C-alpha cells in the first residue's frame, strides 16, 4: 500500500499518547500539511491546522475565542481542559483560556512584571542560580540533564520571580512539579492524590504570602499581582492562585523542554555545536532555531463564535476547536527551507513557538534569557559534554513536548 492509500492520521495518532507520534511527530504532520492543511480530525472533534500562514491568520484574528466555556459542548478544548460537556463545574480558566474583558485585565497586570527592564534585572540572579545547580554535580561523571538541571532551573527562577523566600524554594518547586501532574491523563491514583495535596498546600501558601505582600510590599511578581488587586479590586484572591498555578506549569515545563531538547539537538549535530562554541555570538539565533525545531508547546487552541471561511475555501464551523499545530507550522517549507535541518545560522527564525496575537506568550523574553544563560554556562563549564544514549524518550504529556530523560557525560572520554 503506498502512502496515498493510507488513511490520514486522526485522534490519538496526533497526540503524544501515541508512541510513534510521541517519538517522531514530523512525518504525520508533514502528511497532513501536504494533503489536508485544514483537516477535520473527527475522532477528537477539532480542526487541525498545519500551515504557517493559516496559523498566523487564526491566531491574529481578534474575533477568535479561547475560553472553552464558550465552545461547542463536545469540543476538544473542553476535553483538554477537563471541563464536562454540560459545563456543570465551577471551573475558572487561567489567562490563556480567558477572553476579553477578563483576558485584557489579567494580561495587563501580569505584563507589568514581565517588562524588558524587569527581565534584564533578573539576569545576574538567574546566572547565579544556574551556577549553583551546576556546582552540585561538578564531580559527577554522568547526569540526567532533564531531572538534574533542565527542570530545576525554571522552577527556581519562577520561585525567585514570585518572591518566594529562598529557604522555601525546594518545597515550592516540589508543589509545582506535583501540580504539573494535572497535565498527565495517564497519572496513577497516588499521583492524583499528590497533585491534589500540592494544589491545596500551594493555595494556602499563596493566600498567606498575599497577606505578607500587603503589609510589606516588595518588588516581586506576587506583590505586583496583590497590589493590582488592592488598587482597583482588579484581581481576586482566587485569580491570584489560578495565575500562580498557571505560571508554575506554563513557565517551567516549556523552558525545561527548550533546555533539554535544545541540548539534544546540539549534541546530535556536532558541527553546529562546534560552530556555537567557536562563536558564542550565535547564541541568540541558536536559541530561536532550537525553539523552531522543538516547539516546546506543540499546539494552542481557539474557536470562533461564527462559521469561518478559510482563504482556500474550507469552512470552519462555529464553536468547534481549531487546533493550531505550532510544531507543524515551524516545519512548513513555505516559511523555512529544509525545515528539518537544525541550522543555528538560519536567516529566518520567525517561528511560532510562542503563539501569536492576543495570547502571545508573556514569558517569551524570560524564556529566551533562561535559555541563553543555561546554554552559555553549561557549555563554558562542561565544554566536552556528550550524549550517553542517542535515542532519547519523550513523555506522553499532551501539548508539551518534553524529554523524559537525557543522560549526559559531563567530561570528555
Ligand atoms: C520556551 C518557553 C516557552 C514557550 C515555548 C511558551 C509557549 C507559549 C504558548 C504557545 C502560549 C500560547 C500562545 C497562544 O495561544 O497564542 C503561551 C502563553 C503564555 N505563556 Fe508561555 N511559553 C514559554 C515560557 C513561558 C514563561 C517562562 C512564562 C512565565 C513565567 C510564560 C507565561 C505565559 C503566559 C502568562 C501565557 C498566557 C498569555 C495570554 O493568554 O495572554 N511562558 N506560552
Question: Would you write up a description of this structure?
Answer:
The protein is an alpha+beta fold and 413 residues long. The chain has one domain: Cytochrome P450 (Cytochrome p450). It has helices spanning 19-23, 26-35, 52-60, 76-80, 102-113, 116-135, 145-150, 152-162, 169-179, 189-215, 221-232, 237-250, 253-267, 270-278, 283-294, 326-329, 364-381; strands at 38-41, 46-49, 142-144, 299-302, 308-309, 315-316, 321-325, 386-387, 393-394, 403-405, 407-409. The protein is globular, with a radius of gyration of 21 Å. The mean pLDDT is 91. Protoporphyrin IX containing FE is lined by residues 59, 95-96, 107, 110, 158, 247, 250-251, 254-255, 258, 296-297, 300, 326, 353-357, 359-363, 366-367.
Question: What distinguishing features does this structure have?
Answer:
48% helix, alpha+beta, binds protoporphyrin IX containing FE, 413 residues
Topology:
Blueprint: H1 19-23, H2 26-35, E1 38-41, E2 46-49, H3 52-60, H4 76-80, H5 102-113, H6 116-135, E3 142-144, H7 145-150, H8 152-162, H9 169-179, H10 189-215, H11 221-232, H12 237-250, H13 253-267, H14 270-278, H15 283-294, E4 299-302, E5 308-309, E6 315-316, E7 321-325, H16 326-329, H17 364-381, E8 386-387, E9 393-394, E10 403-405, E11 407-409
The structure holds protoporphyrin IX containing FE (HEM).
Amino acid at each position: 500500500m503506498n502512502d496515498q492509500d493510507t488513511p490520514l492520521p486522526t485522534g490519538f495518532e496526533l497526540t503524544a499518547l501515541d508512541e510513534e507520534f510521541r517519538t517522531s511527530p514530523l512525518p504525520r504532520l508533514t502528511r497532513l500539511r501536504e494533503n489536508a492543511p485544514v483537516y477535520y480530525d473527527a475522532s477528537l472533534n477539532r480542526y487541525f491546522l498545519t500551515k504557517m500562514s493559516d496559523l498566523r491568520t487564526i491566531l491574529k484574528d481578534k474575533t477568535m475565542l479561547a475560553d472553552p466555556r464558550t465552545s461547542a459542548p463536545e469540543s476538544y478544548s473542553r476535553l483538554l481542559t477537563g471541563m464536562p460537556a454540560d459545563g456543570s463545574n465551577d471551573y475558572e480558566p487561567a489567562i490563556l483560556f480567558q477572553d476579553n474583558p477578563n483576558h485584557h485585565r489579567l494580561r495587563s497586570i501580569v505584563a507589568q512584571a514581565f517588562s524588558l527592564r524587569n527581565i534584564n534585572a533578573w539576569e545576574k540572579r538567574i546566572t547565579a542560580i544556574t551556577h549553583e545547580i551546576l556546582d552540585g554535580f561538578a564531580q559527577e561523571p554522568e547526569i540526567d540533564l532533564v531531572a538534574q538541571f533542565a527542570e530545576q532551573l525554571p522552577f527556581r527562577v519562577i520561585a525567585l520571580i514570585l518572591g518566594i523566600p529562598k529557604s522555601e524554594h525546594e518545597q515550592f518547586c516540589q508543589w509545582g512539579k506535583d501540580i504539573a501532574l494535572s497535565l498527565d491523563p495517564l497519572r496513577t491514583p497516588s499521583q492524583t492524590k499528590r497533585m491534589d495535596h500540592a494544589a491545596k498546600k500551594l493555595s494556602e501558601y499563596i493566600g498567606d504570602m498575599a497577606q505578607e505582600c500587603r503589609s510589606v510590599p516588595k518588588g516581586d511578581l506576587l506583590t505586583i499581582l496583590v497590589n493590582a488587586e488592592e488598587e482597583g479590586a482588579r484581581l481576586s484572591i482566587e485569580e491570584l492562585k489560578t495565575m500562580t498555578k498557571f505560571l508554575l506549569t506554563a513557565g517551567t515545563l516549556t523552558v525545561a523542554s527548550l533546555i533539554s531538547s535544545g541540548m539534544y539537538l546540539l549534541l546530535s549535530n556536532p558541527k553546529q555545536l562546534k560552530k556555537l562554541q567557536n562563536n558564542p555570538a550565535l547564541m541568540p539565533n541558536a536559541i530561536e532555531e532550537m525553539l523552531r525545531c522543538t516547539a516546546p508547546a506543540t499546539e494552542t487552541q481557539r474557536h470562533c463564535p461564527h462559521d469561518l471561511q478559510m482563504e482556500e475555501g474550507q469552512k470552519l464551523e462555529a464553536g468547534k476547536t481549531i487546533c493550531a499545530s505550532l510544531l507543524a507550522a515551524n516545519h512548513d517549507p513555505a516559511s523555512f527551507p529544509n525545515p528539518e535541518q537544525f541550522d543555528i545560522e538560519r536567516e529566518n527564525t520567525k517561528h511560532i513557538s510562542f503563539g501569536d496575537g492576543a495570547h502571545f506568550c508573556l514569558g517569551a523574553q524570560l524564556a529566551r534569557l533562561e535559555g541563553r544563560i543555561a546554554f552559555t554556562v553549561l557549555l563554558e563549564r562542561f565544554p566536552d559534554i556528550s550524549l550517553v544514549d542517542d535515542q532519547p524518550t519523550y513523555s506522553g504529556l499532551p501539548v508539551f513536548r518534553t524529554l523524559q530523560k537525557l543522560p549526559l557525560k559531563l567530561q570528555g572520554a
